[in-house]
Design goal:
The chain is of the alpha/beta class and 353 residues long. It folds into 2 domains: 183 residues, Glycogen Phosphorylase B (Rossmann fold, 3-Layer(aba) Sandwich), CATH 3.40.50.2000; 141 residues, Rossmann fold (3-Layer(aba) Sandwich). The strands form 2 sheets. Strands 3-2-1-4-5-6-7 form a 7-stranded parallel sheet, with helices on both faces. Strands 10-9-8-11-12 form a 5-stranded parallel sheet. The radius of gyration is 20 Å and the shape is globular. It starts with 5 loop residues before the first strand and ends with a helix. InterPro entries: Glyco_trans_28_C. This is Glycosyltransferase. It comes from Psychroflexus salinarum. It holds the Pfam family Glyco_tran_28_C.
């Protein structure tokens, strides 16, 4: 095939991670002179519209799910919503097929959004999670996850081609039958030289009510650190702005460029160990303290793996306390020189074959 001319980029709307890691993908294709459209819903769509107000938009059906805050029921509740998610994905697929035909799209890039698919044009899926860490449901969820992946032409794994990589066993699955290739780490951030005048920066993301619980925990923690300059980026839209304190500032949401500057000004970042956050911190070479989203096995696996490599410490949300931040002196932080970012050499040529 010739190099694509019109790309439809479609991230899942579960938190902001899927949308944020699509930002460098969109920038790349725009730089290649391609037309790009975006398709999503909710906050993920708002993020991309905020970053790229000039792009055409296809609004899809809500991919929002509700979560339990307790262990076993966390996964059970997700499974019980599976039929509804499947029906919404089928409706999405009809919308996408119609858009592809009307606007001559010749490449679909889905970021784990199974409804962003077409039988008419090449469809690839961005995914680092080819197997699930979901306790008793790990095997069954990994099997069905692979079943939906195998509809696509390729899997693009957002990871470095160096050793060790970032995703570990998450990006390995015996059930994936289509071609897979690493495309480099996806991050919307660039390393900037700036004075580190912020002691603690917390970047919050993820689904409710877990996001709000995390926010409350951090506000309580930072309120006791009167001698430190602290910032919380809440990761929300359409909510009332919280009142700043003398040592603590709040932002509801920031564009990539502004958040990039804030992270580079920070001595320490506290955030979820979601894969998109891990990629961002790795590319910037930051010292980071991870607090996995409760009961999300993927995030717990990544946090434990990075702790084993002595890169970053972590704590559960329930057990986190201010003194845990003292652990940072025993960890190296990320080395950005060891991380190969998107696009890896030869990426363009693979799309011309």
């Amino acid at each position: 095939m010739d190099f694509p001319t019109h790309i439809l980029v479609s991230p899942l709307n579960w938190g902001l991670g899927h949308a944020s890691r699509c930002v460098p993908i969109i920038h790349y294709f725009l730089q290649q002179g391609c037309k790009v459209s975006v398709a999503s819903d909710g906050d993920a769509l708002l993020l991309l519209k905020d970053e790229f107000p000039e792009l055409n938009v296809l609004e899809l059906n809500s991919s929002k799910v509700t979560y339990s805050t307790s262990g076993f029921f966390f996964y059970l509740k997700l499974i019980l919503q599976g039929n509804g998610l499947k029906k919404r994905a089928e409706k999405d697929e009809a919308l996408v097929e119609a858009y592809v035909k009307k606007h001559q799209v010749d490449l679909i890039i889905s970021d784990h959004r199974f409804g962003a698919f077409s039988t008419e044009v090449k469809s690839v899926i961005i995914s680092h999670q080819l197997q699930f860490k979901a306790g008793l449901f790990s095997l069954s969820s990994s099997y069905f996850n692979a079943k939906y992946h195998n509809r696509y032409d390729e899997v693009w794994i957002p990871d470095t081609d160096t050793t060790p990589d970032l995703s570990g066993v998450l990006s390995q699955s015996r059930w994936i039958k289509i071609p897979t290739k690493k495309i480099g780490v996806l991050s919307k951030f660039k390393k900037l030289k700036s004075e580190e005048d912020i002691d603690y920066l917390a970047v919050i993301s993820g689904p409710e009510p877990l996001r709000s619980n995390f926010e409350e925990k951090l506000i309580q923690t930072f309120s006791s650190l009167k001698s430190k300059k602290c910032v919380i980026v809440r990761g929300v839209y359409d909510q009332e702005q919280l009142k700043n304190q003398p040592h603590l500032s709040f932002y509801n949401h920031l564009k990539s460029e502004d958040l990039n500057k804030l992270v580079c000004r920070s001595k320490l970042v506290i955030c979820r160990s979601g894969y998109s956050s891990v990629m961002d911190m790795a590319c910037l070479g930051k010292k980071v303290f991870f607090i996995p989203t409760p009961h999300q096995g993927e995030q717990e696996y990544l946090a434990k793996r990075l702790e084993e490599f002595k890169i970053a410490p972590f704590s559960s949300q329930e057990d986190f306390k201010t003194t845990d931040l003292n652990k940072l002196k025993f960890y190296s932080g990320f080395n950005s020189e060891e991380i190969h970012q998107f696009p890896l050499p030869g990426f363009r040529q693979t799309l011309e074959v």
